[in-house]
Design goal:
elongated; mainly alpha; 96 residues; 3 helices; 0% strand
């Protein structure tokens, strides 16, 4: 692995960790508010997808370091997952 590849992987690892922190806090508030306003089944589906998104970040970090997947592909998948989750389950991210 060349030095430029290592630098790119380190940079995207930091970005993925920040994104995971965003998922934990902001999308966590969103799923909390979603489960209060909707029935238990939809809340359970949203919570399962929230956990899946959290684990997806760990898998993305592994994918850029341990496999031959490109950083662009992994980042694109995470962006699509965040947009989908934000538009469906985490619309209300208020803390009140």
């Amino acid at each position: 692995m060349e030095l430029s590849d290592i630098a790119i992987n380190v940079a995207f690892t930091i970005i993925f960790c920040w994104s995971m922190f965003w998922t934990f806090l902001v999308w966590g508030f969103g799923i909390h508010n979603f489960t209060r306003k909707h029935n238990k089944v939809l809340g359970a589906v949203g919570m399962a997808l929230w956990w899946g998104l959290m684990l997806g970040h760990v898998a993305a970090i592994y994918a850029i370091w341990g496999t031959s997947y490109s950083v662009g592909l992994v980042t694109g998948c995470l962006v699509v997952a965040h947009v989908f989750y934000g538009l469906t389950f985490a619309r209300d991210v208020s803390t009140a």
